[in-house]
Amino acid sequence: MDVQMVPDPLKEPEDLQRLQPKVDVEKELGYVFKAITLTRHKIDGKVPLIGFTGAPWTLMSYMIEGGGSNTHSKAKRWLYRHPQASHMLLKMLTDVIVEYLLGQVAAGAQALQVFESHAGILGPVEFNEFSLPYLRDIARRVKEKLKETAKDIPMIVFAKDAHYGLEDLSQSHYEVVGLDWTVDPRAARERTGGKVSLQGNMDPCALYAPKEHISEIVKKMLEGFGTRGYIANLGHGLYPDMDPENVGAFVEAVHTHSKQINKRM
Amino acid sequence: MDVQMVPDPLKEPEDLQRLQPKVDVEKELGYVFKAITLTRHKIDGKVPLIGFTGAPWTLMSYMIEGGGSNTHSKAKRWLYRHPQASHMLLKMLTDVIVEYLLGQVAAGAQALQVFESHAGILGPVEFNEFSLPYLRDIARRVKEKLKETAKDIPMIVFAKDAHYGLEDLSQSHYEVVGLDWTVDPRAARERTGGKVSLQGNMDPCALYAPKEHISEIVKKMLEGFGTRGYIANLGHGLYPDMDPENVGAFVEAVHTHSKQINKRM
């Protein structure tokens, strides 16, 4: 789907005919692959490079809403009123996403994250029908293809606000499940039963707190998750008015407290 | 807080001094009480009349954001940066809310619902500190006062997206816990253990579906909740483009399926 379509969003199932039936991912998105290769060279092995993509339902909702939305009610109307056309669109998006992620790996990405940013607007029934199967399909197909090249690329799934789907997400071919800040760390460990690594989940707004408070919040978070099978992270993105110094305090607190916890073990 | 303040939202704790320290609820909100009495007379005993209010954290976030917000990051910044001033404001709001609800009952409201519409933007720790204690305080104080008048007024708490707080909410002096559509009905029953009645929770967007599909969704919902200690409802409000006929189909489906379920018992 070309970026110029944004002001002309999908309205009815007939509009699917406006989409390219067969996408040349290299031609349309090759600039991303070039950027990845360039970045990989510049970081010179100092940190790993994570590739990423939006998940099918999240992309579908942007394509129908034509932008952000509080309710996503136009996109959800499709799910309820045009389930078949919805599945057709989700399938088309999945095909492109699989190629897109494989292209990122070929270009140098060393891990992959799939963002289902709009999962929380779905209920458990709609998530199980319109999101989860495609998330699973993406991981299965990417891994199958990567086997041929003998590359071992860990995959992370982040379905924001999909608290109801935690158990299912932990059994979806992803090595890591990312969590937003509404999930208690210990509860997340119990519910996923050691099946996956967990990533997250400090409330980004905690970066507004004084540094000592950030340190306390990080300590609690690490004690809840433990330091094994765990990637310390925020539970969502930063806001523009956040102080980079406090992001530094977050990283420092992660290092300090994880070392202390590891010593005790 | 006067409605003219909306374009001049609270920015820093000093701004709390702009607020009236002692609010004459009858004077400021008497028009609501008059509307309730008028409505109660007009409906002539045909249906009960539910009074309602926003909860303290939700009102606080409007007072700081000056309107709606996706992230509520300005209001959350207060919680992390000015916890004491936040508690002061939440306490002031709680005092007014208690009087406001009592005034609604005196005017003729037969049940009361408290909406913590912005609960889901909080994590469990912040909810437990800045929302739950005030929700509990409201119910406790309203009920204590109503005891003197020997009135038996059921109270409903609806904390949208507070999936993490379901157990606590079911033990918060409210007779009914309202649920949004991201909570599975059976899971909600298990987690609240029969301690309260439940209200909810069909996805409002399901009203976009054809009537037969609405009927199936309602059937599943009723089978999940059971018909005892239950108030059938949507999981949130309607959107302007929804067809009133489909709202009718929802109500009809609730009647049809609950009768069938009761027959089987």
From TrEMBL, chains A, B:
The UniProt record lists the keyword Cytoplasm: yes
Enzyme Commission number(s) of this protein: 4.1.1.37
Chain segments annotated as transmembrane: none
Major enzyme class: lyase
Cell compartments where the protein resides: Cytoplasm, Cytosol
Pathway noted in the entry: Porphyrin-containing compound metabolism; protoporphyrin-IX biosynthesis; coproporphyrinogen-III from 5-aminolevulinate: step 4/4
Zinc listed as a keyword: no
InterPro entries found in the cross-reference section: UROD/MetE-like_sf (IPR038071), Uroporphyrinogen_deCO2ase_HemE (IPR006361), Uroporphyrinogen_deCOase (IPR000257)
Positions of the Uroporphyrinogen decarboxylase (URO-D) domain: 50-66
Alphabetical UniProt keywords: Cytoplasm, Decarboxylase, Heme biosynthesis, Lyase, Porphyrin biosynthesis
GO biological process per UniProt: protoporphyrinogen IX biosynthetic process
GO cellular component: cytosol
GO MF annotations, alphabetized: uroporphyrinogen decarboxylase activity
Superkingdom of source: Eukaryota
Reactions listed under catalytic activity: uroporphyrinogen III + 4 H(+) = coproporphyrinogen III + 4 CO2; uroporphyrinogen I + 4 H(+) = coproporphyrinogen I + 4 CO2
Protein task: Catalyzes the sequential decarboxylation of the four acetate side chains of uroporphyrinogen to form coproporphyrinogen and participates in the fifth step in the heme biosynthetic pathway. Isomer I or isomer III of uroporphyrinogen may serve as substrate, but only coproporphyrinogen III can ultimately be converted to heme. In vitro also decarboxylates pentacarboxylate porphyrinogen I.
Family the entry assigns: Belongs to the uroporphyrinogen decarboxylase family.
Subunit structure, interactors included: Homodimer.
Record-given protein name: Uroporphyrinogen decarboxylase
Species of the source: Dissostichus mawsoni
